[in-house]
């Protein structure tokens, strides 16, 4: 049987026997730099902007909502079920739809929507990334199908980077079937190494920190 | 007076003897007595690189024999130096006596520019050479021995010399030993890319620490009909 | 080398446009990488490489343990692990699954592993249509070509090539603007994503403690492939296993930077199992196919098993002066460049393409940039020795072997060595002129090879040792 075959060949090649414990593993290397909140926000924004993402610092949830209202106008927008979006009043905006009855409905709407609005579980300052776990609050396709993605993030969720994320969440699989890092708008350089933004994922991304 | 033995390498012995003479002259000028063990031939690299390890061992044993009592062995080649210092141990892994001899000689084997800087501790050898030159970083010297700044420091003291870096200084010239004759078109193509970079530098002389690279580069320059020459670092430093 | 292989290399070398495409694309990737691993930007770059090497060594040397841990984690989260010994078993599984689901359309995100098993061909033969969704892969798919580079499959294609291709295969008017070409691909592929029944991906890493696959992309096709269809199948070589999610801190930091100069690619997906209760979307079935296809054989060689550390970043290709001349289609097998030169002989047998390990000047640029510190030149040298031993056993390549034996004998006898040198220089009488042509005697030999590309300097009158002796004599008098 393939499984037994492969495992047997593996063990034979390595000179190991069934049930042999592994040698002690080298400890994981995790270094968390010392950065205060202001430094983290500055770093996050600089890194997002380097990738042609847009950033906004909102002094209050209301300000975040206003920025978004101005941005989306009357274009159809899908919003996730993140409580923070409700808190900011974003889900009350006229052209925003949240609370879909079914996955099919969500999908049909996202396929045509101009904007997808989500929150984020974390942001990583050193790479300008958003971290989204798939959950009942966050559907995956909202940040994927529409051509513009807007993310609204409370500032406490900004981490220094991957090392800090994996220190605090050593087993992401326990939390969700999908953990996603979004680092800038979608892009390709597959033809003549010329950069083009907005291939399959959103070509434009706005990150609002409240 | 301190003594050093020189291993000129087969290519210098047969094709570029003036490099050996230049090395001799510089070493004597800075106060070293030089010895040339006449039974020396080759380090065995051509056979090793072509996958003929038994033959490489035959030649390597001869080398170890000839130089077994040398205190310092100075070599005008990064690739030969790495062959001896890094690969002999691999070749003699199963022969304890030869392995021991290899280990004993490893710390005594010095590429020429490194010998000047780290053993003789000399940066200015009193040279004068009024030319515009560029420097080619030989792969084995660069990656095997960390030879990058050393020759440039030595060149910086040569009166009248002007150094213009080429953009592809660290790119392989395409020699690679038997690679140059097993894959001549690829090797030739790599050489041409190298000389394009040389031309862009504006220099009219290419300096390097490995005669095999210079053979390749020189050959390509000549074939291309260009009036740019090559010279080993030792020859530049020997100029007064 | 076969005639076809030689011809391919020659064609590539003789095509100035292709040479420019290869040189500038790899040059760009090199400088992007350099910018983000510079000491001012990533001061612990070398430490990260060391750690990555250590972790990979540990994972490979305890592979059975981690494979079993991976499998139990996948199963615990409601997924399934399929073990495939070879290409046929991968295809059989997928075809069977497609039949079960009544699937007609399969979308794929980029995976060199699926290239290795000719997955597309095998599926097409049975009437299942796989569509490549990575733009570069899409282009080579409709051109019916192999990927040219690990990371940039269409590196060899200009916008005009793409314009011709799209207009011919998609029946649309010719469009040469790159941005518009990308939009064309986007709209064609978007329809496929929304309609696909099965999404097939590769995996950059298999995380043992999480039962997760990690996929890094830039375009979003990886996300589309693994989010929209009902079924997700990830296919990966068994060597892709890393022990812990926490090890990603090191590997993700190295992969994007080494490959394209990006600290992280746009999308990094960490997928552990199918959609869970409460989650809104995502595939409802999750399969991971673990592929052997010769890897367990490589594993047995202590010195060369480090070849399996490879995380497929492509940095070695970009920095290789040989790859930059001959391009990706000159290499036999699926993998090209330095990593291909050590993998292919191990997978196919050293006598399959005996020239391959020799097609390198051993410059070492690859080893310098490998994020997991594979000692590629060392392995090339080991393979060269193996080729020779295999040829000796098969009674092949006698002339070269004899030549080196004679050479080694001469090198052991200084007088013979001197005599050879003397004879050689006597043959080329003129001491002033550069040697540009081969004397008739040497038409077939290394000399002819050398002179086909470059000249030889005039031979000196006397060798160094002759000059030394003369000098010493003069000093005595």
Total domain count of chain A: 1
- Strand tally of chain B is 8
Number of strands of chain A: 12
Placed side by side, the strands forming the largest sheet of chain A appear as 1-12-7-4-2-3
Task: Using the coordinates shown, work out and report the CATH topology of chain A.
Answer: Rossmann fold
Sheet of most strands of chain B: 4 strands, parallel
Instruction: Name the assembly state.
Output: heterotrimer
Order of strands in the sheet with most strands of chain B: 2-1-3-4
What is the helix fraction of residues of chain B, given as a range?
40-55%
Mean pLDDT across residues of chain B: 96
Could you characterize what this model shows?
The complex is a heterotrimer of chains A (210), B (240) and C (477). Chain A is of the alpha/beta class and 210 residues long. Chain A contains 6 helices and 12 strands. In chain A, the strands form 3 sheets. A 6-stranded parallel beta sheet of chain A has the order 1-12-7-4-2-3, with helices on both faces. Chain B is of the alpha/beta class and 240 residues long. Chain B has 2 domains: 3-119; 132-238, Rossmann fold. In chain B, 52% of the residues lie in helices and 11% in strands. Chain B has 13 helices and 8 strands. In chain B, helix 12 (211-223) links the parallel strand 7 (205-208) and strand 8. Chain B is globular and about 50 Å long. The mean pLDDT of chain B is 96. Chain C has 3 domains: 3-296, 3-Layer(aba) Sandwich (Rossmann fold), CATH 3.40.50; 304-393, no CATH class; 399-476, no CATH class. Helices cover 52% and strands 10% of the residues of chain C. Chain C has 22 helices and 10 strands. Chain C has helices spanning 3-13, 16-37, 45-61, 63-76, 87-101, 112-116, 119-125, 135-142, 159-170, 178-195, 221-227, 248-260, 295-299, 315-319, 323-326, 337-348, 365-369, 376-393, 398-412, 414-427, 446-451, 464-476, and strands at 80-84, 105-108, 129-132, 198-201, 205-207, 212-217, 231-237, 241-242, 267-271, 285-291. Chain C has a 6-stranded parallel beta sheet with strand order 1-10-7-4-2-3, with helices on both faces. In chain C, strands 8-5-6-9 form a 4-stranded mixed beta sheet. In chain C, a hairpin with a 4-residue loop joins strand 5 (205-207) and strand 6. The longest helix of chain C is centred in the first third of the chain and has 22 residues, at 16-37. Chain C is elongated, with a radius of gyration of 27 Å. The model of chain C has no long low-confidence stretch (mean pLDDT 93). Chains B and C meet through helix 1, helix 2, helix 3, helix 4 and helix 8 of B and helix 1, helix 15, helix 17, helix 18 and helix 19 of C. Strand 9 of chain A pairs antiparallel with strand 9 (267-271) of chain C, so a sheet runs across the interface.
């Amino acid at each position: 049987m393939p499984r037994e075959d492969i495992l047997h060949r593996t063990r034979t090649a390595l000179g190991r026997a069934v049930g042999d414990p592994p040698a002690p593993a080298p400890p994981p290397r995790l270094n968390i730099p010392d950065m205060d909140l202001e430094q983290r926000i500055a770093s996050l924004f600089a890194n997002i902007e380097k990738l042609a993402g847009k950033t906004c610092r909102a002094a209050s949830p209301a300000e975040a909502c206003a920025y978004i209202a101005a941005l989306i106008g009357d274009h159809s927008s899908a919003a996730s079920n993140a409580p923070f979006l409700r808190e900011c009043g974003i889900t009350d905006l006229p052209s925003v739809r949240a609370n879909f009855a079914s996955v099919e409905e969500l999908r049909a709407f996202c396929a045509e929507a101009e904007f997808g609005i989500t929150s984020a579980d974390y942001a990583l300052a050193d790479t300008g990334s958003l971290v989204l776990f798939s959950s009942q609050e966050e559907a995956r396709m909202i940040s994927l199908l529409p051509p513009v993605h807007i993310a609204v993030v409370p500032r406490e969720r900004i981490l220094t980077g991957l090392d800090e994320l994996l220190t605090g969440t050593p087993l992401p699989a326990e939390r969700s079937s999908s953990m996603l890092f979004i680092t800038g708008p979608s892009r390709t350089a597959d033809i003549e190494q010329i950069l083009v933004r907005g291939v399959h994922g959103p070509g434009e991304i706005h990150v609002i920190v409240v | 007076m301190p003594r050093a033995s020189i291993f000129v390498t087969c290519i210098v012995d047969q094709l570029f003897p003036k490099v050996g003479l230049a090395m001799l002259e510089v070493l004597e000028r800075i106060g070293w007595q030089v010895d040339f063990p006449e039974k020396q031939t080759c380090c065995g690299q051509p056979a090793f690189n072509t996958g003929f390890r038994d033959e490489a061992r035959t030649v390597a044993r001869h080398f170890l024999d000839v130089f077994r009592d040398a205190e310092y062995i100075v070599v005008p080649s990064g690739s030969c130096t790495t062959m001896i210092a890094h690969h002999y141990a691999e070749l003699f892994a199963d022969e304890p006596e030869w392995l021991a001899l290899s280990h004993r000689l490893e710390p005594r084997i010095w590429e020429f520019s490194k010998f000047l800087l780290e053993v003789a501790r000399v940066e200015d050898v009193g040279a004068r050479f009024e030319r515009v030159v560029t420097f080619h970083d030989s792969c084995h010297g660069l990656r095997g021995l960390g030879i990058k700044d050393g020759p440039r420091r030595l060149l910086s003291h040569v009166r009248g010399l002007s150094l213009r870096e080429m953009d592809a200084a660290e790119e392989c010239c395409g020699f690679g030993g038997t690679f140059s004759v097993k894959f001549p078109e690829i090797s030739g193509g790599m050489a041409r890319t190298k000389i394009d970079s040389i031309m862009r530098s504006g220099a009219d002389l290419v300096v390097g620490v490995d005669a095999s690279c210079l053979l390749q580069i020189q050959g390509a320059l000549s074939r291309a009909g260009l009036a740019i020459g090559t010279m080993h670092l030792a020859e530049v430093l020997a100029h007064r | 080398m076969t005639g076809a292989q030689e011809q391919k290399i020659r064609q590539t070398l003789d095509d100035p446009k292709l040479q420019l495409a290869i040189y500038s694309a790899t040059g760009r990737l090199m400088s992007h990488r350099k910018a983000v691993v510079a000491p001012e930007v990533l001061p612990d770059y070398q430490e990260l490489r060391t750690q990555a090497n250590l972790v990979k060594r540990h994972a490979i040397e305890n592979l059975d343990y981690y494979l079993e841990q991976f499998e139990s984690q996948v199963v615990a989260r409601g997924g399934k692990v399929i073990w495939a010994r070879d290409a046929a078993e991968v295809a059989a599984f997928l075809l069977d699954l497609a039949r079960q689901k009544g699937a007609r359309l399969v979308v794929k995100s980029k995976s060199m592993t699926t290239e290795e098993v000719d997955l597309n061909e095998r599926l097409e033969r049975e009437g299942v249509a796989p569509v490549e969704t990575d733009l570069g892969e899409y282009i080579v798919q409709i051109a019916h070509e192999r990927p040219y580079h690990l990371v940039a499959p269409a590196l060899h294609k200009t916008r005009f090539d793409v314009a011709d291709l799209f207009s011919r295969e998609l029946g649309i008017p010719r469009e040469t603007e790159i941005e518009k070409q990308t939009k064309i691909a986007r709209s064609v592929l978007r329809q496929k994503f929304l309609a696909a029944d099965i999404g097939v991906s590769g995996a950059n890493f298999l995380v043992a403690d999480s039962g997760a696959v990690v996929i890094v992309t830039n375009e979003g096709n990886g996300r589309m492939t693994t989010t929209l269809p009902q079924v997700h199948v990830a296919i990966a070589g068994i060597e892709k296993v890393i022990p812990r999610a926490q090890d990603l801190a090191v590997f993700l930091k190295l992969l994007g930077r080494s490959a394209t100069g990006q600290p992280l690619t746009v999308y990094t997906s960490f997928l552990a199992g199918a959609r869970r209760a409460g989650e809104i979307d995502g595939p409802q079935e999750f399969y991971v196919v673990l592929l052997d296809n010769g890897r367990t054989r490589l594993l047995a060689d202590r010195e060369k098993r480090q070849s399996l550390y490879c995380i497929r970043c492509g940095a070695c290709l970009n920095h290789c002066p040989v790859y930059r001349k001959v391009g990706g289609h000159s290499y036999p097998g699926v993998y090209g460049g330095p990593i291909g030169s050590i993998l292919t002989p191990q997978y196919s047998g050293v006598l399959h393409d005996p020239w391959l390990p020799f097609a390198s000047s051993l410059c070492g640029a690859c080893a310098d940039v490998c994020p997991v510190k594979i000692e590629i030149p060392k392995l090339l040298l080991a393979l060269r020795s193996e080729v020779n031993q295999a040829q000796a056993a098969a009674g092949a390549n006698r002339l070269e072997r004899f030549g080196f034996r004679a050479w080694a004998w001469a090198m052991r006898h200084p007088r013979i060595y001197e005599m050879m040198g003397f004879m050689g220089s006597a043959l080329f009488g003129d001491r002033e002129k550069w040697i540009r042509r081969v004397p008739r005697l040497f038409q077939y030999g290394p000399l002819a090879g050398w002179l086909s590309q470059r000249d030889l300097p005039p031979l000196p009158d006397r060798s160094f040792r002759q000059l030394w002796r003369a000098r010493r004599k003069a000093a005595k008098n």
